[in-house]
Structure formats: structure tokens, C-alpha cells
Amino acid sequence: MKPGNMLCVGLLFLLLSTLAATSTHAFIVTPYRSRVVSSTKLGMVGFGAKQAADLTKAVKLKARKQWNRYLDMKEEKEIRVAVRKLNKDGTSDPDGEWLEVGRVKSKDNEFTAMAVARQKEIIADHAQRLFTTVSFRAVLDMAYRKEEPEEKWVIVKDSALEDAPKNLPKMVGFEGVPDPESGYYCWEQPQKPGIDQQKKKR
């Protein structure tokens, strides 16, 4: 074999070896990813530019971690949360059906609206998992159930996060309604190559 050909073969072998070593865990599929939630666009109207930017840049929370925080709050009340699809023009439909997705808790029951607003992506992801009518491109209203003085759904806007404490994620939690097909709520991504995706029962 000519020296030039041997060099080409050597480089090709090195490239294939490198790909083989790294492709075992090259991709992690995330089945559910929310596009936009509960007045994310509409709620920005009237906000200061900096505040709107800060809300947009907020790091997406992890479902498992927020579920653990929910479970750790033994004395706090469970507050039901639901989503409702907006009209095509982006307005709320007062006659639309509320789809119950799960429950939130907040420290000392003081941050219910903030709990919904800050965990909206997790809530929307789970709504997509539960309901075929909630697509990836769906734009949603999001609300919590208020029991007193009258029972009703209270819509949450992004403005609920005004003056939110910096450690808010540690003060709120979410638990989703179990998937009717599997009976599971929280799904974990594999941490190492070869480990199957784990599920934990509610």
C-alpha cells in the first residue's frame, strides 16, 4: 500500500475509533418539551424590559427535584393546578375546558401563584403527557384552584413572579397526576451509558 493511502486509512481508523468511543451516549431523548405556557407572551405586556428578560432567562426546573420538594412539604396544602388552551388569536376562552394536571405546594402556603408561574414549563410538559389535545405548539392558560370564599380557577400570569424571592424554586414543588397508561408521574433521564430510563411511582 502506498504511503499516501496508508495515511488516509490511518486517519479514517482514528476517526471511527473516536466516534465509537463517544456515540454510546451522544443523544438523550426528551419526550416532552413545552413551547410556551400560560400567557408567557401576553403577560409580558406592561412589564419592564429588564424584568421580562429576567423571566425569560429563568433556568428550567427539573421535574424530579420539584417533586421531591413537593413531598418534603408535609404540612403545606395541596393546591390543584390545570391548563386550558387559548383561542387561536391568543385570547382566553372563558368556556374552554380546564384540564387538571397536578398539584403545587409552597412554603407556609404563601406562594401559590408563584409556584404555578415558576414551574409552568414542568406543568405544561406534564399536560402534554396526559392529554393528546395539548400539543407541543399549544399555548395555554394556567390556573390554580381556589376554594374560598368561592370555588374557582384563578389564572396565573407571569406578573405573579414580581418580587419573587431568589430561592423560590426551593420553596415550591409540583406533583403531576399519574399518566393513566403507565401509572407513573416522574421520569428520569439515564445518567450513564447503558442505564435504562428509570421511573418512580407516585
H and E order: HHHEEHHEEEEE
Helix content: 25-40%
**What share of residues are in beta strands?**
15-25%
Radius of gyration computed on alpha carbons: 22 Å
Task: Identify the overall geometry.
Answer: globular
Poorly predicted sequence stretches spanning 5 or more consecutive residues = 7-49, 192-202
**Biggest beta sheet summary:** 5 strands, antiparallel
Mean of pLDDT? 74
**Helix-and-strand structural type:** alpha+beta
* Order of strands in the sheet with most strands: 4-3-1-2-5
Q: What would your notes on this structure say?
A:
- This protein has 202 residues and is an alpha+beta fold.
- The chain contains five helices and seven strands; from the N terminus they run H-H-H-E-E-H-H-E-E-E-E-E.
- The strands form two sheets. A five-stranded antiparallel β-sheet has the order 4-3-1-2-5. A two-stranded antiparallel sheet has the order 6-7.
- It is globular, with a radius of gyration of 22 Å.
What's the SSE blueprint?
Blueprint: H1 3-22, H2 49-56, H3 63-72, E1 79-85, E2 99-106, H4 112-118, H5 120-130, E3 140-146, E4 152-155, E5 172-176, E6 184-188, E7 198-201
Antiparallel strand pairs: 1-2, 1-3, 2-5, 3-4, 6-7
Brief overview:
It is built from five helices and seven strands, in the order αααββααβββββ. With 202 residues, it is of the alpha+beta class.
Descriptive labels:
disordered C terminus; 202 residues; alpha+beta; 5-stranded antiparallel beta sheet; 5 helices
